[in-house]
């Protein structure tokens, strides 16, 4: 009987310890992604991307959009998985732009958990136990001719 009480006490103590979810943040190069063969193969050149406050000649604004790119480790480094997640997020932005008859996405910023990450040179990637995430928010536009 005492043994069961001891086991129950240990189980209660262990279960009351708060679980902390892993969330490692990385700031990685946008240029490295845009110049990669994986980006060229999946996203292509049909839509222009402008990050943060990069100047671009806009004729009309179409719609704001948020895209979440996900990646899995699959035995590779987190930075490599982040690159895949960034490409996925840009692919989703490109799809939205094409469906909306836009030819660019401007003002692209990171938006993980609603917190803006503004940079012309780096993107924000978060690695957790289940994979990596890149959340991008931008505005689909029509460019001036």
Summarize this structure briefly.
By secondary structure, the protein is α+β, with helices and mostly antiparallel strands. The protein is built from 4 helices and 6 strands. The model is unreliable at 13-18 (pLDDT under 50).
Description:
With 145 residues, the chain is α+β, with helices and mostly antiparallel strands. The protein has helices at residues 2-15, 30-34, 37-42, 78-99, and strands at residues 24-29, 48-51, 58-71, 104-110, 122-127, 132-143. Strands 1, 2, 3, 4, 5 and 6 form a 6-stranded mixed beta sheet that branches. It is built from 4 helices and 6 strands; from the N terminus they run αβααββαβββ. The model is unreliable at 13-18 (pLDDT under 50). It is 32% helix and 34% strand. A hairpin with a 4-residue loop joins strand 5 (122-127) and strand 6 (132-143). It has one domain (22-143): 2-Layer Sandwich (Translation Initiation Factor IF3).
Which tags fit this structure?
145 residues; 6 strands; alpha+beta
Ranges with pLDDT <50 over ≥5 residues? 13-18
Biggest β-sheet strands, sense, barrel: 6 strands, mixed
CATH topology term: Translation Initiation Factor IF3
**Beta-strand proportion:** 25-35%
What is the annotated CATH architecture? 2-Layer Sandwich
Helix coverage percent of residues? Answer: 25-40%
Give the N-to-C terminal Cα separation: 83 Å
Q: How many domains in all?
A: 1
**Number of alpha- plus pi-helical segments:** 4
The residue-averaged pLDDT reads 89
Helix-strand string: HEHHEEHEEE
CATH class: Alpha Beta
Number of DSSP strands?
A: 6
Q: What structural class results from the helix and strand content? A: alpha+beta
Overall form: globular
């Amino acid at each position: 009987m005492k043994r069961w009480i001891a086991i129950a006490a240990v189980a209660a103590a262990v279960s009351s310890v708060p679980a902390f979810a892993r969330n490692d943040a990385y700031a990685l190069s946008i240029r490295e992604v845009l110049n990669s063969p994986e980006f060229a193969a999946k996203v292509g050149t049909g839509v222009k991307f402008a990050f943060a406050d990069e100047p671009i000649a806009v004729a009309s604004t179409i719609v704001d959009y948020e895209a979440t790119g996900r990646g899995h480790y699959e035995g590779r480094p987190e930075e490599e998985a982040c690159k895949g997640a960034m490409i996925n997020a840009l692919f989703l932005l490109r799809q939205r732009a094409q469906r909306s008859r836009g030819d660019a996405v401007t003002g692209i910023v990171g938006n993980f958990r609603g917190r803006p990450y503004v940079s012309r040179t780096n993107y924000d990637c978060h690695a957790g136990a289940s994979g990596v995430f890149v959340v991008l928010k931008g505005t689909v536009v029509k460019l001036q001719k």
